[in-house]
Design brief:
By secondary structure, the protein is an alpha/beta fold. Helices cover about 30% and strands about 20% of the residues. It has 10 helices and 14 strands. An 8-stranded parallel barrel has the order 7-8-9-10-11-12-13-14, surrounded by 5 helices. The protein has a 4-stranded antiparallel beta sheet with strand order 2-3-1-4. A hairpin with a 2-residue loop joins strand 5 (about 85) and strand 6 (about 90). The chain is elongated and about 75 Å long. About 45% of the residues are buried. Bound molecules: phosphoenolpyruvate and manganese (II) ion. Phosphoenolpyruvate (PEP) binds near residues 183, 236 and 268.
Length: about 325
Amino acid sequence: MIAVLKPNATQQQIDSITAWLRSQGLDVHISTGTQHTVLGVIGDTRNVDTELLESLEVVERVTRITEPFKSANRKFHPDDTVVDVGGVKIGGGNFQFIAGPCSVETPEQIMTVAQRVKAAGATMLRGGAFKPRTSPYDFQGLKAHGIELLCEAKKATGMAIVTEIMSIDRLPLFADVDVIQVGARNMQNFELLRELGKTQKPILLKRGLANTLKELLMSAEYIMASGNSNVILCERGIRTFETSTRNTLDLSAVPMLHEMTHLPVVVDPSHGTGHASLVPAMALAATAAGADGLIIEVHNDPPHALCDGAQSLTPDQFDKLAADVRRIREVL
Ligand code: PEP
Ligand code: MN
C-alpha cells in the first residue's frame, strides 16, 4: 500500500503517521521527494482502513497494491481451483451444465425436468425450494418438501443437486444438497457466508444486483476465511438503466474474474436476461468468454411455471443449447 502525503507535511506529522502504521505491525518505507513524501506500507495491509488513512489531514491519497482478498486472489494461488461436487468437477478446464426449474413445484415436474436435462448433458440439477421473491404474495417455494423432491430426483438420476439457502437456521435441511446456492440478494449476508464457510459444501455464490466484482470476491473471501474454499462464482446480471432485459449480463466479468481469482466462474443467462429467447445467444457468448459452466432455467411447461416462466427454456430448447455450447467448446 502506498500513501502519498500532502506537500506541506511536517516532520512531526510524518513521524506520527509512521508510528501509527508501525504500531499496527506494518513496515513503513519513507521516500522523500522534492514535493511529496511517499510512504510504502509493507506487510499484511488487509486490516488497514484505507478510507480512514485517507481522511487524515496529512494524507493526499492512498493506493492499494494488493487487493484485500487473499484466499480468492489469483496472485497468491496461480492455479485454477477445481471444485469437486461428488465426483463432478468444475473449473480448471472442466465445464458443467447446471439446469432445472426456477422452483421445485411438483414431484412430476422436477423428475421430468431432471431426466430431460440429464439426457442433454447436465450434471447438476437446480431447483429453488426457498425462493427469494420480491413480493411476499408470490409463490415462496415448497421449502423442506422441495428439498425432499430434489433428493428424490437425485436418487433417480444420480445428478448432483443445487438449491438456494436464505437463512442459516435451515442449514440442517441441506445435508443431502450437493451445492448450496447463495442468491444475489444474500451475496452480502456476511453472517450467512461465515456460517457456510464452516461447512465443506461447495457454495454457488451469485453476484449481487448492484455489486462490483471486488465485492463479490470479498464475499467469497468470507466463506474461504472461515475454512471452505469450495466456492463457485456466478455472474447473473446486474442492474443498470436498461429496461429491455431483466438485468444486464456482464460477460466481461468472466475474463475479468479469471484474472482476479482462481475460483471457477459460471454464468446464469436466465436471470441475466429474463427472456427465454435471449438465453441461447448469451449462453454461447458466456461459453466463448471462458465460463466454467452455465446455470440455466428449464421448465417442462414454462407458461404455467410458478416462477420465472418467461426466462425458462423448454427441455427441447435446452437440448439445442447444450449441443451448440459443446460446439463452441470444441472450437475453443
Ligand atoms: C435463482 O437462481 O433462482 C435466483 C433467485 O437467482 P438470483 O439470486 O441470481 O436472482
Ligand atoms: Mn429464477
